[in-house]
Amino acid sequence: MIRIDCPYCGPRDEVEFAYRGDATVRRPSADAPADAFYDYVYTRRNPRGWHVEWWHHAAGCRQFLKVVRHTMTHEVRQVAPATTVVDVPSE
Ligand SMILES: [Zn+2]
Fold it and tell me: Which domain of life is it from (predicted)?
């Protein structure tokens, strides 16, 4: 069980949240080639280690959050509001 410390509600169990994907993907500019949009929609990394993810607190405040989670241990290092700039830790 992952515990996510929502900045609005406090620590909650993972079951209250919905995973919403990779938070490091950026939408290409409107004049970008089709390959850039293909990668934006379909291509995802599968990192082993720290990853910045979108989580939606669906059964709580309904806010989108950025969560820094280790993909092997499920340790959560940081939880921030959606507008916060969050870097992927090197270790
Ligand atoms: Zn919340």
Answer: Bacteria
**Cα(83)–Cα(48) distance, integer angstroms:** 25
Topology given in CATH for the domain delimited by 3-25+33-81: Folate-binding fold (3.30.2270)
State the distance from the centre of ligand 1 to the C-alpha of 38, rounded, in angstroms: 32
List CB contacts of 75: < 8 A, sequence separation 6 or more. 69
pLDDT grade, residue 87 (50/70/90)? confident
Q: Where are the domains of the chain?
A: 3-25+33-81
Q: Could you report the per-residue pLDDT of 5-54, keeping only the tens digit for each?
A: 999 999 999 999 999 999 999 999 999 999 999 999 999 989 999 999 99
CA of 18 from ligand 1 middle (Å) equals 12
Ligand 1 centroid – CA 30 distance (Å): 33
Yes or no: say if 46 and 37 are a contact pair by the CB < 8 Å rule: no
